[in-house]
Structures are given as structure tokens and as C-alpha cells.
Amino acid sequence: MTAGPCAGVAAFLVTAGWCAASAAGADAAGASNALARDLLAQLIAINTTDTPRGNVTTAAEAMAQRLRAAGFAAEDIRVLGPSERKKNLVVRLRGTGASKPLLLIGHLDVVEARREDWSTDPFQMVEIDGDFYGRGTLDMKGPDAIMLASLIRLRQEGFRPARDVILALTADEEGGGANGVQWLLQHHRELIDAQFALSGDDYSVLTENGRPRFFKLVASEKVYADFQLRVTNKGGHSSVPVPDNAIYILTRGLDRLAAYEFPFELNAVTREYYRRLADIESGQRSADMRAILRDPPGGAALERLAQDPVERSITHTTCVATRLDAGHANNALPQRAQALVNCRILPGHSPEEVRQRLVQVLADPAIVVSYLASDGTLLDQAPAERGFAPPPLLPEMLNPLDRLVAETWPGLKVIPSMSAGSSDATHTSAAGLPTYTFSPLSVDPNDDREHGRDERISVASFYQANEFFYRYLRTVTAR
Ligand SMILES: [Zn+2]
């Protein structure tokens, strides 16, 4: 295609009907894609790892400069944080004030990447065979660039949203002691306060053999908790074994844990997940998904579904032994045996509740169960706060998403889901800001390179996601 209103616009936009109306619209889409690409390349070239070479402030300042150049008022752009190298960027697109603001969050920091592990320089964006390569393309400088480009496009079009749109690009999501979202919530809540928040920290269009399967909207997260199991013993000479052996005591307890299953439980988000997924799946699987939604849930269906480790993790709290360490000499009875048990807790339950359950399941007072905090300290008791209950799926957030997804990928469904990991959405949700996570990038989960080598995103998908997000933002803030 060389002429007409669709010239210069990628074919998928044309087929999706996105370049219909005017040449101006097509030009704007093309210009926004070029800008998003530029922003991504610039962000990738700035090392934002939590290492001596990394600096998040440099990235925050660079993006602030871009926003100033795009016409945002100086007082609406803030670069602030607890340390010189860990500053966050907060920018506000002013609306009419008819509704409460919308907050967009993304993290600027990335996981370390070493040149010798990669095929290309991880801190230099390159395009090879239809993919952009570079650390953070997916997690999550790609989504950051898309959010920035969309905001800039709205500003340049003179769009007046019904609600302010706030974008916070932050530090230390991946680790490090200066988590930007937590810091902003504690020290500058007024800057980021909103009715609800959208995080771009997960790709949403899950593909299989190049074809999209469903659009994942993360609306709930499990809570992460580590526990240490420890048995101590006076030990002795290994030539005279005694029944009271620290290793045997611990491993018998671990056997009981391996056989234990936490109760089946659904919440507002996982219910909707299975309700919608049942329409996509077929045969027994689909029937089982419908059966577990009944009250009481079908027992046989429950058992069959729980055979799948993924479904099991969605419907249960899980605790699994991940490390084991015992003994001090080949010829001595062990004086100490310990294991690390990692739990992913369903929302609505506290780590302390799970610790007490572990004590019951291990069923031996000789096994001491402590909570291992993220800073490495061991505590007799775990936090008693419960994971935030999943927020309701707000119609003003979900309806435009359903509509836009159906328009873009005919037949594709939005599937609300719960993440087994935890992200910055944990902090915003806990602070009373319902947070929904999606980024309209297409990725095959079998080739997910987040945190890994040769991280990449498809160029076509990046541009498609950029246009999608702009359109979504326009719709969701129209009233
Ligand atoms: Zn991330």
C-alpha cells in the first residue's frame, strides 16, 4: 500500500479498522509508533539495574525531558525519590476533574544482564528479524514506552480527559531497597492518589504457535512467604545411631507436607477466570471448569483439574520445599537439619495463618517453623495481615477493555486472572488503590524471556500494543 489514508500504517492496524477515518489519524498512529520506538531505545540504553553501573534517576530525568519537550507543564512533572540513584518520575495529564484520577504504574529498573550471556549487547536495542532485543523490552521498558507515548499523544492532541491521568515510572520493583511505589505511597500519596490503577507489568495476549489464545487481565495476586523449618539435636557419633535423628524428623515432616493439600477456594477474580475460560476450553476440561463453579463444587471435577499444577495453584494456597540443608560431618549424627518452604498464599489469608497450618501439618513439635522475612531475619511469628481481597472488576475499566480486545482480535476474550508472583500492584492494592495489570503485548509463554537472556518483543506486537493502549486510555478516561 503506497497511497491513501492507510499509507505508512502497519497492515494489522488496517485490518483491525484502525486507520479508517483520516489520513491525520494514520499519521498520528505512525508518529506515535516512531516515538514509542525511540523512547524504548533510549530507555534500554540507560542501564537501570540495581548494580553500581545502574541508575534509575538517569532514566527518570531523560523521560521527564521528553515530557517537557512534548508540552507538559513543569509543575506536572516530578522527579523524586529517597536516593540520588533511585528517583521516580511522576507526570500528570490534567483532565476536567469530572471523575477521580487514573494512575498508571510501571517500573524503570531492570534485572541485571551480562554481555557475555547475550547474543547482542543487552543495553543497546537492536531489531533482528521482526523483534526488538534488549534488557527490559518486555519487563518492562516496552510497556513504559507505550504508556509514555500514549500520554504524549493525548497531550499533543489536546485531549481533555474526564479524569487526570497520572503516570508513575518507578525504581526497585525487581529488588533493591528503594521501592519507588512504596516510597511514593508513604511520602507523596497526594501525587499518585487515584480511583484505580493500571500496571503494565505483564504481557496480556498469550499466543500459541503465533495465534492469540486469550487476553490476560491480572486483578489479584497471591502473597509470597518463606518459612524455615528447623530441627536441632545433640548429635553424637555416627557409629552409634539413635532413633532421634534430626534429618529423619525433618524429612518425615516434609513427607506429611508433600501429601497435604490446602483447601480449594475461589474468589471474585478466579471465579470470573473459570467462567470465561470454560467458554474457550472444550470437552472434559470445559465441563470441569463449569462444575467447580457450582456450590458445592463438583468433587471429581475438582480432582481432575487439580492434577494440572497451574489450575491447582490458582485454586489453592501452595507450600513447597525448595531448599534442604543438614549435618556437619560425614561421621557425626546431625545436630541440625533445616528446610526452606516457599508458600504462595491465596488472597484473604495471612502468612501467620499459613505458618500455624504448617505446624499442624508437620505434626512434630521438634520441627520449629519460623517466618523468613525478605531482609533475611527469622521471626517466630509471620505477619498477620491478610492479602488484599481481589478488587471488584470495575465496569468502567473492564467494559472498554472487553470491547477493544474484541475489535482488535476478533473472538479473543479477556480473562481476569490471579498472578502467582507479586509485583508493585501488591503495594498499590494494599494501599486501597484497586490495581489491574495488563499490557497488550503478544507473547508466547513458552518463549517468555523476562529476566533471561536475549529478552525481546515482536516489533509488530509493540506497535499494535501502542495503538491499543492509546485507544484504551482515551476510552477509559472519556468519562
Ligand atoms: Zn516487571
In summary, what is this structure?
By secondary structure, this protein is α+β, with helices and mostly antiparallel strands.
> Low-confidence stretches at least 5 residues in length (pLDDT < 50)?
1-20
How many distinct folded domains?
3
Give the integer mean of the pLDDT values. 92
CATH superfamily of the largest domain: Zn peptidases
Q: Which structural class should the secondary elements be placed in? A: alpha+beta
Radius of gyration: 25 Å
CATH classification, class level of the largest domain: Alpha Beta
The share of residues in extended strands comes to 15-25%
Report, as a whole number of angstroms, the end-to-end distance.
37 Å
- The CATH topology name of the largest domain reads Aminopeptidase
* CATH architecture designation of the largest domain: 3-Layer(aba) Sandwich
Describe the structure.
With 479 residues, this protein is an alpha+beta fold. The protein has three domains: 5-221 and 388-476, Aminopeptidase, CATH 3.40.630.10; 223-261 and 317-345 and 349-386, Alpha-Beta Plaits, CATH 3.30.70.360; 263-309, no CATH class. The protein is built from 15 helices and 18 strands. The chain has helices at 11-15, 23-45, 56-69, 141-156, 180-187, 189-192, 246-259, 268-280, 283-292, 299-306, 309-315, 351-362, 395-408, 424-430, 459-476; strands at 77-80, 88-93, 102-107, 126-128, 131-133, 165-170, 196-208, 211-221, 223-232, 236-237, 318-326, 332-333, 336-345, 368-372, 378-379, 414-419, 435-443, 456-458. Strands 1, 2, 3, 6, 7, 8, 16 and 17 form an eight-stranded mixed β-sheet that branches. Strands 11-13-9-14-15 form a five-stranded antiparallel β-sheet, covered by helices on one side. A three-stranded antiparallel β-sheet has the order 4-5-18. Strand 14 (368-372) and strand 15 form a beta hairpin. It is globular. The model is unreliable at 1-20 (pLDDT under 50). The structure holds zinc ion. The site of zinc ion has 5 residues, from loops.
